[in-house]
Amino acid sequence: MADNVTDLTEFELPYRRKAILRKVEFESGMFMVRLILKEGNRITQVDLDSTAAITLGEALVSAATRE
User: Fold this and answer.
1) Torsion angles phi and psi, residue 9, rounded to 5
2) DSSP letter for each residue of 24-55
3) Rounded to whole angstroms, how far apart are CA atoms 4 and 6?
């Protein structure tokens, strides 16, 4: 069985960058949120467990709304 990957969303970011979110179910049954950052030819991929994904999401909201 191959990993099951579901595209969630894509964001166009400043300076021609892109962020992609995917949900990944591994053969073991474990789920992760995959964050892919693209900048030119450079690609950075990070798999986050649910706790890390929630913490990152909360930190992004906090930083974006802070005065």
Assistant:
1) -165, 165
2) EE-TTS-EEEEEEEEETTEEEEEEE-HHHHHH
3) 7
The domain in which residue 8 lies consists of 4-65
pLDDT digits (tens, 9 = 90+) for 4-54: 999 999 999 999 999 999 999 999 999 999 999 999 999 999 999 999 999
- pTM for this prediction: 0.84
Q: How many domains does the chain have?
A: 1
How many CB atoms are closer than 10 A to CB 53? 19
DSSP state, residue 67:
-
CA distances in angstroms from 19 to 28, 30, 49, listed in the order given: 26, 23, 18
Task: Please name the residue that has the structure tokens 């969630």.
Answer: 8
d(CA 36, CA 62): 21
Per-residue tokens: 52: 């890390």
